[in-house]
Specification:
With 369 residues, the protein is of the alpha/beta class. It has 10 helices and 14 strands. Helix 1 crosses helix 7, helix 5 packs across helix 6 and helix 7 packs antiparallel against helix 8. The radius of gyration is 20 Å and the shape is globular.
Length: 369
Protein backbone atom coordinates (compact mmCIF):
# COMPACT_ATOMS: atom_id res chain seq x y z
CA UNK A 1 0.00 0.00 0.00
CA UNK A 2 1.43 3.38 -1.01
CA UNK A 3 0.28 6.95 -0.84
CA UNK A 4 1.54 8.03 -4.25
CA UNK A 5 -0.43 10.90 -5.74
CA UNK A 6 -1.03 12.90 -2.58
CA UNK A 7 1.51 14.04 -0.03
CA UNK A 8 0.23 16.30 2.80
CA UNK A 9 3.81 17.39 3.61
CA UNK A 10 4.92 17.96 0.03
CA UNK A 11 5.92 21.54 0.83
CA UNK A 12 8.51 20.26 3.32
CA UNK A 13 10.17 17.85 0.89
CA UNK A 14 12.22 20.64 -0.70
CA UNK A 15 14.52 20.89 2.32
CA UNK A 16 18.12 19.96 1.43
CA UNK A 17 18.68 18.01 4.64
CA UNK A 18 15.16 16.69 5.21
CA UNK A 19 14.78 13.58 7.38
CA UNK A 20 14.07 10.35 5.54
CA UNK A 21 10.92 9.72 7.59
CA UNK A 22 8.14 11.86 8.97
CA UNK A 23 7.41 9.55 11.92
CA UNK A 24 9.39 6.95 13.83
CA UNK A 25 7.64 4.55 16.21
CA UNK A 26 8.64 1.79 18.59
CA UNK A 27 6.48 -0.60 20.58
CA UNK A 28 4.78 -3.97 20.81
CA UNK A 29 2.79 -5.33 17.87
CA UNK A 30 -0.16 -7.55 18.77
CA UNK A 31 -2.35 -9.71 16.60
CA UNK A 32 -5.78 -8.20 17.23
CA UNK A 33 -8.93 -10.26 16.77
CA UNK A 34 -11.89 -7.88 17.02
CA UNK A 35 -15.57 -8.76 17.41
CA UNK A 36 -18.22 -6.07 16.93
CA UNK A 37 -22.00 -5.88 16.92
CA UNK A 38 -22.43 -7.65 20.26
CA UNK A 39 -25.56 -6.75 22.22
CA UNK A 40 -23.88 -7.69 25.51
CA UNK A 41 -20.84 -9.44 26.90
CA UNK A 42 -21.20 -13.24 27.04
CA UNK A 43 -22.03 -14.63 30.46
CA UNK A 44 -20.79 -17.94 31.86
CA UNK A 45 -21.63 -20.89 29.64
CA UNK A 46 -23.16 -18.79 26.82
CA UNK A 47 -22.10 -18.33 23.23
CA UNK A 48 -22.91 -15.10 21.40
CA UNK A 49 -22.63 -14.47 17.66
CA UNK A 50 -20.98 -11.22 16.56
CA UNK A 51 -22.20 -9.20 13.59
CA UNK A 52 -18.66 -8.21 12.58
CA UNK A 53 -15.16 -9.58 12.97
CA UNK A 54 -11.71 -8.48 11.86
CA UNK A 55 -8.11 -9.63 12.30
CA UNK A 56 -5.29 -7.13 12.01
CA UNK A 57 -2.01 -5.99 13.58
CA UNK A 58 -2.65 -4.07 16.81
CA UNK A 59 -0.75 -2.34 19.60
CA UNK A 60 1.79 0.07 18.12
CA UNK A 61 0.63 -1.09 14.68
CA UNK A 62 -2.57 0.92 15.19
CA UNK A 63 -0.49 4.09 15.28
CA UNK A 64 1.86 3.03 12.49
CA UNK A 65 -0.97 2.28 10.06
CA UNK A 66 -2.77 5.50 11.06
CA UNK A 67 0.27 7.66 10.27
CA UNK A 68 1.07 5.79 7.05
CA UNK A 69 -2.49 6.06 5.71
CA UNK A 70 -2.39 9.81 6.33
CA UNK A 71 0.60 10.06 4.03
CA UNK A 72 3.31 10.32 6.69
CA UNK A 73 6.45 8.39 5.83
CA UNK A 74 6.56 5.96 8.74
CA UNK A 75 9.27 3.72 10.17
CA UNK A 76 8.65 1.19 12.96
CA UNK A 77 10.99 -0.68 15.28
CA UNK A 78 9.20 -3.69 16.77
CA UNK A 79 9.81 -7.29 17.75
CA UNK A 80 8.10 -10.00 15.69
CA UNK A 81 7.81 -13.67 16.52
CA UNK A 82 8.58 -16.30 13.92
CA UNK A 83 5.12 -17.84 14.30
CA UNK A 84 2.26 -17.37 11.82
CA UNK A 85 0.87 -14.47 13.88
CA UNK A 86 4.14 -12.58 13.62
CA UNK A 87 4.49 -13.35 9.93
CA UNK A 88 0.98 -12.04 9.22
CA UNK A 89 1.59 -8.82 11.15
CA UNK A 90 5.01 -8.20 9.59
CA UNK A 91 3.76 -8.82 6.05
CA UNK A 92 0.66 -6.69 6.50
CA UNK A 93 2.56 -3.71 7.90
CA UNK A 94 5.11 -3.91 5.08
CA UNK A 95 2.25 -3.91 2.55
CA UNK A 96 0.90 -0.75 4.21
CA UNK A 97 4.17 0.96 3.21
CA UNK A 98 5.69 1.00 6.71
CA UNK A 99 9.48 0.77 6.89
CA UNK A 100 10.60 -2.12 9.14
CA UNK A 101 14.36 -1.92 8.82
CA UNK A 102 14.85 -1.49 12.59
CA UNK A 103 12.37 -4.24 13.45
CA UNK A 104 13.62 -7.73 14.22
CA UNK A 105 12.29 -11.29 14.14
CA UNK A 106 12.89 -13.44 17.22
CA UNK A 107 12.75 -17.26 16.91
CA UNK A 108 10.53 -19.05 19.44
CA UNK A 109 9.12 -15.79 20.84
CA UNK A 110 5.33 -16.02 20.99
CA UNK A 111 3.60 -13.11 19.29
CA UNK A 112 1.20 -11.33 21.68
CA UNK A 113 -2.51 -11.68 20.90
CA UNK A 114 -5.52 -9.56 21.95
CA UNK A 115 -9.18 -10.43 21.53
CA UNK A 116 -11.36 -7.30 21.64
CA UNK A 117 -15.14 -7.30 22.00
CA UNK A 118 -17.01 -4.06 21.24
CA UNK A 119 -20.22 -3.52 23.21
CA UNK A 120 -22.22 -0.27 23.56
CA UNK A 121 -19.48 1.95 22.13
CA UNK A 122 -16.81 0.57 24.46
CA UNK A 123 -14.50 -2.42 24.26
CA UNK A 124 -13.47 -5.31 26.49
CA UNK A 125 -10.20 -7.11 25.86
CA UNK A 126 -8.37 -10.32 26.71
CA UNK A 127 -4.63 -10.45 25.98
CA UNK A 128 -1.90 -13.06 26.06
CA UNK A 129 1.73 -12.05 25.66
CA UNK A 130 5.27 -12.12 26.98
CA UNK A 131 7.84 -9.44 27.77
CA UNK A 132 9.75 -8.04 24.81
CA UNK A 133 12.72 -10.27 23.96
CA UNK A 134 15.19 -7.38 23.93
CA UNK A 135 15.43 -3.79 25.17
CA UNK A 136 14.31 -1.35 22.46
CA UNK A 137 17.59 0.57 22.16
CA UNK A 138 19.60 -2.65 21.79
CA UNK A 139 17.25 -3.82 19.05
CA UNK A 140 17.07 -0.48 17.21
CA UNK A 141 20.45 1.14 17.72
CA UNK A 142 20.31 4.66 16.38
CA UNK A 143 16.93 5.14 14.70
CA UNK A 144 16.64 6.69 11.23
CA UNK A 145 16.10 10.45 11.24
CA UNK A 146 12.46 11.48 11.49
CA UNK A 147 10.51 14.69 11.93
CA UNK A 148 8.52 13.26 14.83
CA UNK A 149 8.48 10.38 17.30
CA UNK A 150 5.18 9.27 18.85
CA UNK A 151 5.64 7.42 22.13
CA UNK A 152 4.01 6.22 25.33
CA UNK A 153 5.73 7.72 28.37
CA UNK A 154 5.54 4.48 30.36
CA UNK A 155 6.14 1.89 27.65
CA UNK A 156 9.05 3.84 26.16
CA UNK A 157 11.28 2.90 29.13
CA UNK A 158 10.64 -0.77 29.98
CA UNK A 159 11.72 -2.07 33.41
CA UNK A 160 15.24 -3.45 33.37
CA UNK A 161 16.30 -1.46 30.31
CA UNK A 162 19.01 0.97 31.39
CA UNK A 163 20.49 2.04 28.06
CA UNK A 164 21.91 5.55 28.14
CA UNK A 165 21.37 7.25 25.80
CA UNK A 166 18.14 5.59 24.68
CA UNK A 167 16.85 5.47 21.12
CA UNK A 168 14.47 8.27 22.14
CA UNK A 169 17.37 10.46 23.25
CA UNK A 170 19.13 9.81 19.94
CA UNK A 171 16.03 10.59 17.90
CA UNK A 172 15.57 13.89 19.75
CA UNK A 173 19.25 14.77 19.24
CA UNK A 174 18.71 14.21 15.52
CA UNK A 175 15.88 16.76 15.50
CA UNK A 176 12.69 14.74 16.06
CA UNK A 177 9.77 16.33 17.92
CA UNK A 178 8.50 14.01 20.65
CA UNK A 179 4.71 13.52 20.79
CA UNK A 180 3.87 11.71 24.04
CA UNK A 181 0.83 9.84 25.25
CA UNK A 182 0.23 7.71 28.32
CA UNK A 183 -1.96 4.72 29.09
CA UNK A 184 -4.31 3.98 31.95
CA UNK A 185 -2.56 3.25 35.26
CA UNK A 186 -4.03 -0.04 36.57
CA UNK A 187 -2.38 0.52 39.97
CA UNK A 188 -4.39 3.69 40.56
CA UNK A 189 -1.30 5.51 41.83
CA UNK A 190 -0.99 7.97 38.93
CA UNK A 191 2.51 9.16 39.95
CA UNK A 192 2.79 12.91 39.36
CA UNK A 193 6.53 12.59 38.75
CA UNK A 194 5.69 10.98 35.40
CA UNK A 195 5.07 14.51 34.13
CA UNK A 196 8.79 15.19 34.63
CA UNK A 197 9.31 12.98 31.57
CA UNK A 198 7.68 15.72 29.49
CA UNK A 199 10.65 18.07 29.78
CA UNK A 200 12.03 16.91 26.42
CA UNK A 201 8.66 16.45 24.70
CA UNK A 202 6.96 18.80 22.27
CA UNK A 203 3.42 17.47 22.80
CA UNK A 204 1.38 15.49 25.31
CA UNK A 205 -2.02 14.09 24.33
CA UNK A 206 -3.73 12.09 27.13
CA UNK A 207 -7.46 11.53 27.53
CA UNK A 208 -9.41 13.48 30.15
CA UNK A 209 -9.38 10.73 32.79
CA UNK A 210 -5.62 10.26 32.52
CA UNK A 211 -4.95 14.01 32.40
CA UNK A 212 -7.00 14.75 35.52
CA UNK A 213 -5.50 11.82 37.42
CA UNK A 214 -1.88 12.78 36.72
CA UNK A 215 -2.43 16.50 37.38
CA UNK A 216 -4.68 16.00 40.45
CA UNK A 217 -7.35 18.24 38.91
CA UNK A 218 -11.11 17.81 38.69
CA UNK A 219 -11.95 19.11 35.20
CA UNK A 220 -10.43 18.50 31.74
CA UNK A 221 -9.91 22.27 31.34
CA UNK A 222 -7.91 22.55 34.58
CA UNK A 223 -5.92 19.47 33.58
CA UNK A 224 -5.12 21.10 30.25
CA UNK A 225 -3.81 24.23 31.96
CA UNK A 226 -1.66 22.13 34.28
CA UNK A 227 -0.19 20.15 31.38
CA UNK A 228 0.49 23.31 29.40
CA UNK A 229 2.96 24.27 32.12
CA UNK A 230 5.00 21.17 31.23
CA UNK A 231 4.92 20.91 27.45
CA UNK A 232 4.59 23.31 24.47
CA UNK A 233 1.58 21.52 22.93
CA UNK A 234 -0.95 20.12 25.41
CA UNK A 235 -4.07 18.33 24.16
CA UNK A 236 -6.77 16.60 26.21
CA UNK A 237 -9.28 14.34 24.50
CA UNK A 238 -12.64 14.16 26.23
CA UNK A 239 -14.55 11.32 24.58
CA UNK A 240 -18.02 12.37 23.37
CA UNK A 241 -17.31 15.98 24.41
CA UNK A 242 -14.52 16.53 21.91
CA UNK A 243 -10.98 17.77 22.55
CA UNK A 244 -9.20 20.88 23.80
CA UNK A 245 -5.65 22.11 23.48
CA UNK A 246 -3.09 24.84 24.08
CA UNK A 247 -0.10 25.48 21.81
CA UNK A 248 2.29 27.85 23.58
CA UNK A 249 4.57 28.00 20.53
CA UNK A 250 1.84 29.79 18.58
CA UNK A 251 -0.15 31.32 21.45
CA UNK A 252 -3.31 29.41 20.47
CA UNK A 253 -5.98 27.86 22.66
CA UNK A 254 -8.88 25.96 21.09
CA UNK A 255 -11.53 23.31 21.61
CA UNK A 256 -13.69 21.32 19.21
CA UNK A 257 -16.80 19.21 19.76
CA UNK A 258 -16.98 15.60 18.65
CA UNK A 259 -18.85 14.54 15.53
CA UNK A 260 -22.16 12.73 15.76
CA UNK A 261 -21.43 9.27 14.36
CA UNK A 262 -22.51 5.70 15.17
CA UNK A 263 -19.77 3.94 17.12
CA UNK A 264 -19.06 0.40 15.93
CA UNK A 265 -15.66 -0.14 17.58
CA UNK A 266 -13.52 2.46 19.41
CA UNK A 267 -10.32 0.37 19.24
CA UNK A 268 -7.43 2.53 18.06
CA UNK A 269 -9.41 5.79 17.92
CA UNK A 270 -6.90 7.49 20.22
CA UNK A 271 -4.03 6.39 17.97
CA UNK A 272 -5.77 7.83 14.92
CA UNK A 273 -6.34 11.10 16.81
CA UNK A 274 -2.65 11.29 17.76
CA UNK A 275 -1.51 10.54 14.20
CA UNK A 276 -3.73 13.31 12.84
CA UNK A 277 -2.49 15.81 15.44
CA UNK A 278 1.11 14.99 14.55
CA UNK A 279 0.39 15.53 10.85
CA UNK A 280 -1.35 18.86 11.47
CA UNK A 281 1.49 20.04 13.69
CA UNK A 282 4.19 19.09 11.18
CA UNK A 283 2.17 20.84 8.47
CA UNK A 284 1.88 23.95 10.71
CA UNK A 285 -1.92 24.15 10.61
CA UNK A 286 -3.78 26.37 13.11
CA UNK A 287 -4.55 24.57 16.37
CA UNK A 288 -8.32 24.64 15.83
CA UNK A 289 -7.88 22.97 12.43
CA UNK A 290 -5.56 20.34 13.90
CA UNK A 291 -8.06 19.46 16.61
CA UNK A 292 -10.95 19.36 14.16
CA UNK A 293 -8.99 17.19 11.73
CA UNK A 294 -8.00 14.77 14.49
CA UNK A 295 -11.62 14.58 15.68
CA UNK A 296 -12.74 13.81 12.13
CA UNK A 297 -10.16 11.06 11.62
CA UNK A 298 -11.04 9.36 14.91
CA UNK A 299 -14.77 9.62 14.13
CA UNK A 300 -14.20 7.89 10.79
CA UNK A 301 -12.22 5.16 12.56
CA UNK A 302 -14.84 4.29 15.20
CA UNK A 303 -17.41 3.55 12.48
CA UNK A 304 -15.35 0.55 11.31
CA UNK A 305 -14.14 -2.69 12.90
CA UNK A 306 -10.65 -2.87 14.35
CA UNK A 307 -7.78 -0.55 15.24
CA UNK A 308 -5.34 -0.47 12.32
CA UNK A 309 -8.07 -1.99 10.15
CA UNK A 310 -10.24 1.10 10.65
CA UNK A 311 -7.65 3.87 10.25
CA UNK A 312 -8.86 6.26 7.52
CA UNK A 313 -6.87 7.27 4.47
CA UNK A 314 -7.06 10.50 2.48
CA UNK A 315 -9.58 8.89 0.18
CA UNK A 316 -11.96 8.42 3.11
CA UNK A 317 -11.37 11.99 4.26
CA UNK A 318 -11.89 13.38 0.76
CA UNK A 319 -15.09 11.36 0.32
CA UNK A 320 -16.44 12.71 3.63
CA UNK A 321 -15.53 16.32 2.89
CA UNK A 322 -16.89 16.31 -0.65
CA UNK A 323 -20.19 14.95 0.66
CA UNK A 324 -20.36 17.65 3.37
CA UNK A 325 -19.32 20.39 0.96
CA UNK A 326 -21.82 19.40 -1.72
CA UNK A 327 -24.80 18.85 0.60
CA UNK A 328 -26.99 21.80 1.58
CA UNK A 329 -27.14 22.03 5.40
CA UNK A 330 -30.60 21.41 6.85
CA UNK A 331 -29.76 22.13 10.50
CA UNK A 332 -27.55 24.33 12.63
CA UNK A 333 -25.39 21.29 13.40
CA UNK A 334 -24.77 20.55 9.72
CA UNK A 335 -24.01 24.22 9.03
CA UNK A 336 -21.52 24.21 11.91
CA UNK A 337 -19.77 21.15 10.48
CA UNK A 338 -19.59 22.82 7.08
CA UNK A 339 -17.97 25.95 8.56
CA UNK A 340 -15.62 24.07 10.89
CA UNK A 341 -14.16 21.91 8.13
CA UNK A 342 -14.01 24.47 5.34
CA UNK A 343 -10.21 24.46 5.74
CA UNK A 344 -10.18 20.98 4.15
CA UNK A 345 -11.08 22.47 0.78
CA UNK A 346 -7.49 23.57 0.30
CA UNK A 347 -5.99 20.37 1.69
CA UNK A 348 -7.81 17.21 0.64
CA UNK A 349 -7.02 15.67 -2.74
CA UNK A 350 -9.49 15.92 -5.58
CA UNK A 351 -11.50 12.75 -6.07
CA UNK A 352 -9.51 12.04 -9.25
CA UNK A 353 -6.25 11.78 -7.28
CA UNK A 354 -5.19 8.35 -6.08
CA UNK A 355 -5.42 8.28 -2.29
CA UNK A 356 -5.59 5.49 0.25
CA UNK A 357 -9.05 4.30 1.21
CA UNK A 358 -9.83 1.66 3.77
CA UNK A 359 -11.76 -0.36 1.19
CA UNK A 360 -8.56 -0.69 -0.85
CA UNK A 361 -6.31 -1.53 2.07
CA UNK A 362 -4.48 -4.85 2.15
CA UNK A 363 -5.52 -5.43 5.75
CA UNK A 364 -9.21 -5.15 4.89
CA UNK A 365 -8.94 -7.92 2.31
CA UNK A 366 -7.81 -10.25 5.07
CA UNK A 367 -10.73 -9.66 7.40
CA UNK A 368 -14.36 -10.58 7.69
CA UNK A 369 -15.34 -7.02 8.66
Amino acid sequence: MTNEGFDPLAALRTEDDAPEFDVYLQGMVFLDIVFSGLSEMPSAGRELWAEGMGSCPGGIANLAVATARLGLRTSLGAAFGDDDYGEFCHRTLAEEGIDLRTSKRYPEWHSPVTVSMAVDGDRNMVTHGHDAPECPTRMIGRPPRARAVLLDLVEARPPGCTDDPTWIDMAREDGALLFADVGWDPTGEWPAHLLDELKNCHAFMPNAGEAMAYTRTTTPQDALYALADHVPLAVVTNGPYGALGIDSTTGEEASVPTLRVPVVDPTGAGDVFGAAMALGTLAQWPLSDRLAFAALCSSLAVQQVGGSLAAPGWGDIADWWHHVRDTTPTSAYEASIRRRYDFLEGIVPDSSVHAVRRAAATIARRSDA
